[in-house]
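User: Fold both of these, please.

Assistant: Here is the first one.
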Amino acid sequence: MDFTVYDYPREIWRLKPGWEVTLKTITFIPLILFGVLGNAILCYILVQIRALRTPTNLLIVNLAVADLATLVICPLMFMFHDFYQNYVLGAIGCKTEGFLQGSLLITSVLCLCAISYDRLTAIVFPKRSRLTKRGAGVLIVASWIGGFLLALPLSMYRAYRERQWKNYLETYCAENTTFLPSYWHVLIGALVWFPLLVMFCCYSLIFLKLDRYERRVLRKEHPISVSYKRKVAKTLFIVLIVFVLLRIPFTTLVFIRYNRYLNDNQNQVGE
């Protein structure tokens, strides 16, 4: 279809007003700096203090590295999308931005699952062999490879497009609407439901183990000597609840975004 004979069907604004760009940038900067600083300090401490380089802490450092990269990349990508009417990242950006964001997020949740399982084996199955540094290294490499592989369709099934209208050159990053609708369910499963299931199972077993331990020990010792166990269980469930509260809205927004994307494409084709 020759679009050069038609005017662009929407309002042309190219870049959002300066006050809006400034306000959103000022809002993002403290969040980015706070997150980057916190994760960087954690990595620095564990690198400098050899005694802290336990297998569990290595997994935590890996999580901090993934979060650090997420804090640097994801807000920038969001601002580019939000500030400009056109897609300004070009062909390379179209292939890499979704892939990088998806792989970093998946790597983070896989690392959370590994940490949860490590705590499960340490508390519920203490007589079994503990995680070694070599094992932690294998889990770290596996989390990154798994993240890259699961996010690969976000690179393979997106393509940079240009469409010349009579009064406007439109640039956008097009998604394959045949494959990606099904893939989004896989992505949501990897980012939300799989880690939620793993964390729920691990923390539930930990809670039951600590509850039985507390009942047995309370018969012999003062309650203060085992009160910290109750605090541990509460902390674990707080982590789980926070994960649910943050991830379920994310899941909802992804589906809303995708439905709007399909509706916009259909309306644009119709016009």
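And the second sequence with its predicted structure:
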Amino acid sequence: MYDVLYPRVCSLGHVGVSFYFIVSGSVIVERMEEDKFTGEQHKQVVGEMAEGDAFGELALLHNIRRTATIICKENSEFLRVDKPDFDEVLRNSHQIEWERRLSILNSQPILKEWEKTEIRNTVAHTKIREFPPNTVGTAMSAVILGDIDVPADDVYLIQSGKCRVVREITMIKKESSSGKIQLKLPPINFNENNIDNNVKERVVRKFLSVHMLSKGDFFGVGEDLKKTFIISVGRVHCLLISQLIFMKKERGKSLEAMKQGMNQAFLTHKQAFKTYTEDRDWKIYKKKLVDEIVRRRKRPHSTTYDDVPIVVRVENSHYFEK
């Protein structure tokens, strides 16, 4: 059945009779949480969902009352599946999916201190996403997260595949009168309009790999992603957990620790610049060395066959040709 609802879709504690797909619009997920210090109950937003997401299966799968209130953020449209149809068509697949996500959560080292009930309650705020490989013609579709000033909505736990962390580095390239190239990082509050064209300065941008992520790693925890992109290398599967779940856990202490760990793992702009310039200098040196060897091999010399001692010619005749 097709519904247009606003503002409340279902309420905490009510009997679950339907499952919902979000056709358009967005909703917030609200639960009652107990303050561990005061014991008082208060409403807490624990997640958001948008077009393409679904909800309401938990009450139908486990025959329990609604565990959260779903409120529309805007005028929203839903495809509603009532319980008899859900049981007949969708129950088995959703039960398997629910157990799969629970198993993944139980295997995560970062959640090993969580209680079992906390992990089970978290399942409803997770989703599995597949990201395509970074192939020619589909490069943009391979960017999972990138160049954002605000924290992501979800924490990404990599289940399979690898991701490359790429950072855009802005440099000033200056050419001297002798033709020598010098690279340097721009100063703080740099303005491209201040480039001095009279001394052959120009701005260049390079995308440099600063870290690799693989199965068991995570991202989207509030780390610095300005001018930084997380790109799939091959096909990648991630389990996404609403960041709000981590924010309410120990008042966000675990999330902050994860954030600091990620920022320390990434090369800074200065470190990435140093790595790039050292690699560039090494490549230039190797090219000069190879060019010099090739040049010397082509240099004519006056040594002839007759200049080689006869004993050497006899013992190594296969090396010499008249």
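The two ends are 94 Å apart (CA to CA).
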